[in-house]
Amino acid sequence: MRSADWEAAYASEPPYRQTHAFLSATRDSAAFERARIPVENYPGPVMLVSASDDGFWPSTAYSEIVMRQRQAHGLPTFHHLCMGAGHHVHYPFLPATLISKPHAMSGLLLDAGGTPAANAAGNEGSYMAVLEFLGRAAG
User: Fold this and answer.
1) Do 123 and 98 meet the contact criterion of CB atoms below 8 Å apart?
2) Pairing relation of β-strands 46-51 and 77-82?
3) How many angstroms separate the CA atoms of 122 and 94, rounded?
4) Which string of b and e fits 40-67 if b means at least 16 CB within 10 Å?
5) Could you read off the pLDDT of 54-112 as tens digits, one per residue?
6) Long-range contacts of 56-60 (CB under 8 A, 24+ apart)
7) Which residue of 3, 99, 122, 126 is 20 to 30 Å from 83, comparing CA positions?
8) pLDDT digit string (tens) for 28-56?
9) What CA–CA distance (Å, rounded) separates 77 from 45?
């Protein structure tokens, strides 16, 4: 396989979770490696934020790949995992109830994942983690 299996994303009833298509692309390890961004080439500190129930793409799995690549080179890398949250992790105090929405181009109903409570906690927790990271990185 040389690309993602989008049929995997749309095999169930809507709302659809696109994460399955992105995960299917990892089966071709050579193609996946060629597409990988060489994150180890950036020497500065990197902060990753992911959501364990991201329905749009496997943000936690991909963040773990970045962590391993950078840690293998001794580079400063931090990962904040929003447990139970979906793709829509933003700023605190924003509405966290939008779980499903139509895709901007196709109009297909997509499931971003998470629950309102987990998304709200992810918004606040990730915001605080990013502020802390920036404070440390700025010295």
Assistant:
1) no
2) parallel
3) 11
4) eeeeeebbbbbbbbbbbbbbbebbeebb
5) 999 999 999 999 999 999 999 999 999 999 999 999 989 889 998 999 999 999 999 99
6) 56/17, 56/18, 56/19, 56/87, 56/110, 56/112, 56/113, 57/18, 57/19, 57/22, 57/87, 58/19, 58/22, 58/23, 59/87
7) 3
8) 889 888 888 999 999 999 999 999 999 99
9) 6
Q: Note whether 2 and 28 are within 8 A (CB).
A: yes
CA 121 to chain centroid: 16
**Integer Cα distance of 89 and 60 in angstroms:** 13
Angle at 110 between CA 62 and CA 104, to 5 degrees: 100
pTM value?
Answer: 0.90
DSSP SS3 for 11: coil
3-class secondary structure per residue, 49-86: EEECCCCCCCHHHHHHHHHHHHHHCCCCEEEEEECCCC
